[in-house]
Amino acid sequence: MSADSGKVARAIPRSLAGNLxxxxxxxLAALLLLPLHGDVWWLAAPRPRRWWLAGFTLLAWLAxxxxxxxxxxxxxAAPAQGEAPLLVCWAxxxxxxxxxxxxxxxxxxxxxTAVRVVALEAVDADLLAGTRRALFVASxxxxxxxxxxxxxxxxxxxxxxxTLDLEYALLALGDRSYNDFCAFGRQLDEWLRxxxxxxxxxxxxxxxxxxxALRHWQYELGRIGGVDELPDWAPPAYEPWILRERRCLNPGxxxxxxxxxxxxxxxxxxxxxQAGDVVEVGPxxxxxxxxxxxxxxxxxGTQPVERAGVREPLAQALSCLxxxxxxxxxxxxxxxxxxxxxxLPHREYSIASIPGEGSLRLxxxxxxxxxxxxxxxxxxxxxxIAPGHTVDLRLRANPGFQPxxxxxxxxxxxxxxxxxxxxxxxxxxxxxxxxxNWLLFGERSPEHxxxxxxxxxxxxxxxxxxxVDLAFSRGPEPAYVQHRLRTAADxxxxxxxxxxxxxxxxxATGMAPAVDAVLAEVLGxxxxxxxxxxxxxxxxxx
Length: 542
Prior knowledge:
Blueprint: H1 3-33, H2 48-77, E1 86-91, H3 96-110, E2 115-119, H4 125-129, E3 133-139, H5 151-155, E4 167-174, H6 183-194, E5 198-199, E6 204-207, H7 211-225, E7 239-248, E8 258-265, E9 278-282, H8 287-297, E10 304-307, E11 310-313, H9 314-318, H10 334-340, E12 347-350, E13 360-365, H11 376-384, E14 390-396, E15 410-415, H12 419-432, E16 437-443, H13 453-461, E17 467-472, H14 481-487, H15 489-497, E18 501-506, H16 511-523, H17 525-534, E19 537-541
Parallel strand pairs: 1-2, 1-3, 3-4, 4-5, 4-6, 15-16, 15-18, 16-17, 18-19
Antiparallel strand pairs: 7-8, 7-14, 8-13, 9-12, 9-14, 10-11
Helix pairs in contact: 1-2, 3-7, 14-16, 16-17
């Protein structure tokens, strides 16, 4: 029996017991009233004594019912024993932010996460101090104002400075046609950081209900809930791209293999994008996984079916759909099977190149589950698709990580496959003739994990890279990228004094918080926060 089935099974006896209790009270009251009915029934007004007895019985019944219903509501609202609910707070002027908050909460509940949804005006410092994880969905109205109902929170709670041991994520809604785009969401984010709260990932900003930004928010929700295959609220409008080349860059590495992929549009016309932008990839199950399911169901994978208005073989359609256990699908005809399944969600990757290089390049690590099954997106890109075949792909702008002015110095910090986004920025700087670049990069092995090393050496030899600091956790002198940054503290302060922007790309749970802490240590918390507010400290972490 599943955990959910067990909850239902335990709830039925409690509900039945409550109903039997109420019925017993009613029967007892009727028996007590029987002696009063010794005379003949007649249509006259009851005696005063009988009015009092009837009224007392009714009040007793109402009190018992209210007590029972209250205890039931409390039991239903309480999270599982020992589990603190994740707080979902919303501030909405038109209702859209509230709708998104409730949809986010529903997704997390489905993943087994205990959730409590509240309007922002009901949140105070004590509630936040007692919360360990929270989501905020906040819209901005007028010229940078909060929604009307959130004014009390702004003037009361945000006027305080509590110490918060809180991890949070924030979705800010706004309209770029206004000067103060997402102003309240940004203000709330800065206040939470100033109180010691730690972002689970950087603020997601949405311009006029932009579907791509909302997909990114949902993508991050899946990480919070530990769910790999949440269906997209609005699936991307993919375009076909051809995988031209795939190379493993770290053979023999103690870590998982990392591949450099080169892709081009199927129609041959390379679109424009900027350094820092990302792609949304439509993954597919590996052919062996699909064939195993088709065989268990006793179906013919070549039988034609229709999916999203396109006629294609059953196996090809199933490769793009979420596949539950075969037992739940037994007996369905091929078309009914396809109609019953939800599409696979997208996967996001940083772009490692600029259009001037002639192809779109990705750097993908082949991830695996505990049973060694490949990850959904990385399995497809690293081994499921053969060069020369088609990948479903969509470009997505990432305004918060696009190039800063080329006449200012640039500090690039990252680890692992985060070097993809940093490489694109370096290539854009070289193309623009912008010098004054400093790279700090960390990985596992100095012998195997030097991604794009030939490019970096060439750029350094030609003077495009002023400095390169590498850190390897399994080298002769184990170190992480934050250690290299701390060691170069004087140089870091000098570059920042000269107007440098700091871009961080890579792991959100280890590297990024450690780098953030070093920046606060070396520059001071206020200056670090000022850099973030000025757009001179930006992150693209995952």
